[in-house]
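quick one, 285 residues, struct below
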Amino acid sequence: MGKFELETAPPSEELLAVAKQELRETPEVRAAAVEELRKLVEAATDLCYPTDEEFLIIFLRPTKFYAESALKLMRNIAEFNKTYKETLFNLMPADVQNVFIEHNIINILTNRDQHGRRMMVVNMGETWDPKAVSEEHIFRVLYTIHKLAVLEPATQISGVVVIYDFKGMGMKHVRSMSPGGAKRLLTFIQEASPLRVKGIHFINQPMLFSMVWSLFKPFVQDKLNKRMFFHGDKLSKLHEHVHKECLPSNYGGTLPALDYGGKQWYPVAEQHLDFIKKWNSCGFK
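---
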């Protein structure tokens, strides 16, 4: 599976071709959009965002290089950070280190899927101890991971895929979720994250999953709803979206079983503290 590390190198020619087709990205469009967005940010007296090209691209790629849309996304992020200030203010990897290292809840695969998308697995069942790790703890980890993901040009362009594994979910897990937590997560995904979410896959859902879904369903917008897939224990349905060649044997794939987790890839977060501090400085003045 290989060592986990962030891929911060400039995009390949193949990726740039994808960006041109899906995001309108060409050198000319990029240069014009960066300049326009820089002026918009500098004119927005209530916003505080860095205006270097590399940083602005993070917001321009998911909005297909429309500067006004990128500015709206930046405002949404500022509003989200303001709303959930108690949870997110100046959040650093060290603040959630124990969840990364001691609990096998969230894992980032070292490889990508057949479309070059970054893949994340969230274990919401047997490996999650709600007494030790709260719903808010999980969100803080997800938010920290997204700060790292936006650093990768390949992920900016190709997007991400999330697999929620509910194997072993019981009532103690259901009772640990709330409508407020569901709203926070979905507001983040749909309105306040620059990541392109290309697919959310639910697997191994038990019968009581309907209780969980009732918390989330009211907040799911049509665009995201079309990218949500419910597979139960039929992993062959998952493989229609994420090829077996890209998955570990834990999920019916042909790759070796997962033998790594947060303990192995947490150090990557510590390597990018300067960027995380830069991200934390963004928002309303």
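DSSP finds 15 helices and seven strands in the chain.
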